[in-house]
């Protein structure tokens, strides 16, 4: 079967003579233009001269695409924001329920305190601060915080975080204070076991732990027993978590054991801390 | 030689101008949905290859150089670059028509692919930045897209210019 071809578009061998001279002239012209442009940046200059006219045209040409892209982006952003708002509304709702529960617990607590005639006010005020520089000075670790005399921080004030006791303020200046952490070698805190049986003094050992060097062997103590502040020194309020027993080692004397306590809160684990101030009245 | 009426000639010229302006607009736009602006056909190469192979628009060397200079002004890197490519395409198409008998559609398509690849090679070789690290895949993709654009332009020419 014969193939149908469009004979108008096709020629049977081109018999025209090629304008060779014109071609070489134009080839030379184009080459010279390219070299001149490369050397003198002619096109760049022309384009910069015509920017005022070409920019609006380019802007108009790109306008539909830009509008499409921007509207698409805004729709996507809107959808994402709607989703986020929905999530946040849910969180707010849950928090409001929690707040209601807290109010209820607070009211119950007040009622129970009234019934049991317990002191109504703990007399403790907290001042939140942030750790700005944990450092070691003369072999002792020191933590610097961003609150000082200007924020009514007092020397000797206990410092806690949400896990437990962190240390004690030892130096204060106008805008910052220094804390001695509970694991520092020169640190001591009166403590009591959470079952209220044993009153002891815990010392920092400088290795990230606390210890009781001479704990009567006759006293009952077990691994994982926890210690809280006893409050007998009028510096640390009673009931702040300190740590739990991790090791009970015998000493040279058979009458005593050495107890190692791991603090609940490593001083530099969290950047936020609270400096406590006890009301005098 | 095929004789064209003045009306036909006018039609061809008008269509060429319309397609040229369309190419100018399209070369400033990316392909929707493709973020990389490099992935785009070279509309001007497709247009010139189409008009040279279909022997429309009564193009000659001087016209091609002037068109090339206009393209350089709007979309070129180097003044004279597109002029050189266009006269190169014209020369090659002329020589091939001289020595080969282009009879079927397949041959025409083969020739168009060859001319597009040739023009991309010249474009790459005469590129101002001489970007030798230009990915081969990207060049190939551009050539393929340009070939499809050529097919579209040819369909438009066949549709709107009466034979």
**Termini separation of chain A (Å)?**
116 Å
Please provide the ordered H/E string of secondary-structure elements of chain B.
HHHHHH
Oligomer: heterodimer
CATH architecture of the largest domain in chain A: Beta Barrel
* Main sheet attributes: strand count, strand direction, barrel closure of chain A: 6 strands, antiparallel, barrel
* Strand composition percent of chain A: 25-35%
Please name the CATH topology of the largest domain in chain A: Thrombin, subunit H
Kindly report the average pLDDT value of chain B: 84
Number of strands of chain A: 12
**SS-based class of chain B:** mainly alpha
Please describe the structure with a list of short key phrases separated by commas or semicolons.
heterodimer; A: 281 residues; alpha+beta; Thrombin, subunit H; 2 domains; six-stranded antiparallel barrel; 12 strands; elongated; disordered N terminus; B: 163 residues; mainly alpha; globular
What does this structure look like?
The complex is a heterodimer of chains A (281) and B (163). Helix content of chain A is 34%, strand content 31%. Chain A has three helices and twelve strands, in the order H-H-H-E-E-E-E-E-E-E-E-E-E-E-E. The longest helix of chain A has 66 residues, at 51-116. The model of chain A is unreliable at 1-12 (pLDDT under 50). Chain A has 281 residues and is an alpha+beta fold. Chain A has a six-stranded antiparallel barrel. Chain A has a six-stranded antiparallel beta barrel with strand order 6-7-8-11-10-9. Chain A is elongated, with a radius of gyration of 40 Å. In chain A, strand 3 (158-161) and strand 4 form a beta hairpin. Chain B has 163 residues and is mainly α. Chain B has one domain. Helices cover 69% and strands 0% of the residues of chain B. Chain B is built from six helices and no strands. Chain B has helices at residues 6-27, 43-53, 61-75, 81-99, 105-125, 136-160. Chain B is globular. Chain A binds chain B through residues 3, 5-6, 8-14, 16, 18-19, 22-23, 26-27, 29-34, 36-38, 42-43, 46-47, 50, 54, 58, 61-62, 65, 68, and chain B through 1-2, 25, 28-30, 32, 53-55, 60-62, 65, 68-69, 72-74, 76-81, 83-84, 87, 91, 94-95, 97-98, 101-105, 108, 126, 128, 163.
